[in-house]
Amino acid sequence: MVESIHGLRGVGFGGDYNPEQWPDDVRLADLDLMREAGVTIVSLAIFGWASIEPREGSYDWSWLDDTMDRLHEAGIRVSLATATASPPPWLTRKHPEILPRTADGSVLSPGARQSYSVSSRIWRDYAVGLAVAVARRYADHPALTLWHVDNEIGCHVPHDFSDSAAAAFRRWLRARYGDIDSLNAAWGTAFWSQRYGDFEDVLPPRAAPSHSNPTQQLDFARYSSDELLSYYVELRDAIRPITPEIPITTNFMCTSATKWMDYRRWAAEVDIVANDHYTIAADAEREIELALSADLTRGVAGGRPWLLMEHSSGAVNWQPRNRAKGPGELMRNSLAHVARGADAVMFFQWRASQAGAEKFHSALVPHAGRDSQVFRDVVALGAAVGSLAPLTGSVVQARAALIWDYEAWWAVELDAHPSADVVYMDRMRALHAALWRRGITTDVVASTDDLDAYDLVLVPTLYLVSDEGAANIAAAAERGASVAITYFSGIVDPNDHVRLGGYPGAFRELLGVRVDEFFPLLDGETTMLDDGTTADLWSERVELAGAEAVRMFTDGAMAGRPAVTRRQVGSGAAWYVATRQDESGTAALVDALLAESGVAPVLDVPAGMEAVRRVGEQGSFVVVVNHTDEVVALDLNGSELITGSLVEPGFKVPAGGCAVVQEV
User: Fold this and answer.
1) 310 among known catalytic residues
2) Residue 329 is a catalytic residue
3) Is the pTM of this model over 0.90?
4) Which one from 53, 289, 310, 610 is the annotated catalytic residue?
């Protein structure tokens, strides 16, 4: 994996550029506006197939040739797309069999985007053909700096249930299990007379009379992520020999809402991780969700710098109510991504479209044009980003880790579980938010990642865990870390088979507790803990088997039983949380864990202010983002990169403002 964009100096700034939507006079004006805004890189031709090849075999390169040449003359680098993100109408008319299907058999018709099945050999042949044509055309162009393969692969069709997908799923299963008996054992097909005699009998988990086999559902999720990845790999491998020196990537969607692509597996196949992220206007704590998503992206990237390929300058078009960003929010959002490892700040899109489904999606150049507050804010942001070259390539420092496993997410939200209210992101967001409010930078890592650097390890709702992952988490506690595991964790193995002998299964010995039965709470039901806090959603009958009770249930079916426990383990400790604590209970838990582990914030800042340290060859940098309405004084020494001013203790960051301090 490379750690910078080919030929690009400093932190990249720009976004998706769609000149095919505009006449030539607008395209020429764009170049002047890009220079004014400080744009250094654009993504080009993402949805350009129908403009490049309006009829099969008939190519029009003129508009793209002109754009590449003009961008080069303006000193702007190009992240060039394979242009395969949406098939042209002539292709789906000629080959309707490439269209994907839903679980109930409905065909997803053309007219939007991503109307293709990645398992279709016909589709792949056409897509590879176009990608190769684009690569050959621009292989030697001096503006080319990065390959952008397809776009947000799996965004709209994470699961395809077509006949081509069924055949591909069977091939995947043969490769995974080798023989049908192994599949039957893994899927537990003795239940409900589901035993298979041949792989040809196996189908995707299409709409069925009752609950589909859970391991079949889990394996189909694994297959779907792998099949989408294999599509990227095939396109990548087709263009790599043509331009071996140009890095290749695709834009991930590492967010707390994007569930079905296992980006940890994908990351090994890209030269640099790139991510798209959009805040949710209705989320009052959207800056915290942004931080979680950026921390996840950094974790997927193995701690290395990554690219913010898309975010928005203001409102989007796909939420129920699309609200513009408030004063200073554009700068804060952008620098919060930089704080957490981004080495490029890019947007969808450069110029707001006049027509089409995304015409009300914000852009760097809005419908109002240059004379607008949005563009003035963009120019200011471009100047700020342009000053950040010294921190390029630096990495984020963190002593706290949050365990995030995609397969655990998929498995915990399968049907026929003790409570439909147990969802993966609930405790993930709650614990991360509690750390964020205390100024703690958190790495988001997998259960099998190296945990030696962390003094605090939080494990929320890890329903499915491998033996290796469970042992790795236990070793962190033995080594001296404080490890906290929440309810409904360690319950099943990677085949979604229950770990027998009592819950929480894989973590029973580590935690020193044993549970023989769950007692999920009903909708609206709460329970009290002995510190006066409340809890809801979940409880269970905990028996101490080496642990001590930290908190007890005081009412309900579990009155007098442990709700939170702690066990001394080696040089560290293992905590168990057997219920969903309210915000104050979660805060108290996190405060106790921080005190025990010794994990502290980078700076003493008030709640609502981010301070994250990045360290690299040119020193140490603290990125500060003030989400509060108050001026905040900081105890820092160095120079502030955006303004060039000297920083001494008492340095003030204005309300809603940002600073990037190179420490001395």
Assistant:
1) yes
2) no
3) yes
4) 310
